[in-house]
Design brief:
This protein has helices at about 1-5, 15-25, 40-55, 85-90, 95-105, 110-115, 145-160, 180-195, 210-220, 225-230, 235-240, 245-264; strands at about 120-125, 130, 140-145. By secondary structure, it is mainly α. Strands 1-2-3 form a 3-stranded antiparallel sheet, with no helix packed on it.
């Protein structure tokens, strides 16, 4: 936004100007993936711009972003990692991405939730950690931990200094993002597979590790109410966006139904 609007006074930014900004971002390709920016990304930028104007409502009486239509988003996310893809990804990932990814796969946490884990909120003896962050009460929750997740946290607690388990360059601040490391890991995995004359694994987002956990939880038989609570969602409907039973799991469910009917 700073590059686009430059030194333009706030009262000179019109809805037409914001529309031009929206179109320019739609033509932009991501520095990380080389793909065009997703509508959701552009909408988040527009939302940020709208909030900025609201902060200066005494100076600018009309918010120009309120007159701009946001882009339609495809909110359905169906990418779920296979066990083989997970293994290849974690082997190729460097630290701290490997531990962050492991926590997402083992506990279903959001990336930012993992990065902001504080030492004082980890209760290994009780098998959970406290996540005090989030916009809703449901997001602020106790997160049950698997044996693998506990092992990751125990190792990091021994090595890291400061309050954050995943600290950045400054030990008193958490890591902000690992997107670049994620993209690099995917590239390494597919480079190795290309050298072995194997097909590349389909691209996925870091957030899809959370989708993978949710889908595995649903297939393991965790009811939707419990799954929503573990994910930090206040509504069951939100879980339906993440839980996508595989085709094989659906066939297994049909065989179970067939056996039940045959016995009745």
């Amino acid at each position: 936004m700073k590059r686009f609007f430059g030194a333009t006074p706030l009262d000179r930014i019109t809805p037409e100007t914001v529309e031009k900004f929206k179109r320019s971002r739609a033509r932009k390709k991501s520095d990380f993936t080389g793909r065009h920016l997703r509508p959701a990304t552009i909408n988040r930028e527009l939302a940020c711009l709208k909030i900025l104007f609201n902060r200066f409502e005494d100076t600018v009486p009309r918010n120009p972003v309120s007159k701009v239509k946001f882009l339609a988003e495809d909110s359905e996310q169906t990418r779920v990692l296979t066990a083989e893809e997970e293994k290849l990804y974690l082997l190729a990932a460097s630290q701290p991405l490997r531990d962050i990814a492991t926590m997402m796969l083992e506990a279903g946490m959001r990336p930012e939730e993992v990065c902001r884990i504080r030492r004082e909120n980890v209760c290994l003896e009780s098998g959970y950690l406290l996540n005090p962050f989030g916009k809703t009460k449901a997001a602020r929750r106790k997160v049950p931990l698997t044996v693998t997740a506990c092992a990751v946290l125990a190792r990091r607690l021994e090595k890291v200094k400061g309050d954050f388990v995943f600290s950045g360059r400054a030990t008193d601040q958490p890591i902000i993002k690992v997107n670049r490391a994620h993209v690099g890991t995917l590239a390494r995995v597919n480079r190795i597979r290309a050298e072995a004359n194997e097909s590349p694994i389909p691209r996925f987002r870091l957030y899809d590790l959370r989708h993978t956990w949710a889908t595995r939880g649903a297939m393991a038989g965790i009811d939707l109410v419990t799954l929503a609570a573990m994910l930090g969602h206040s509504r069951i409907q939100m879980v339906l966006r993440y839980a996508h039973p595989t085709e094989e799991h659906q066939f297994q469910a049909m065989r179970k139904l067939q056996s039940f009917v045959a016995r009745s």
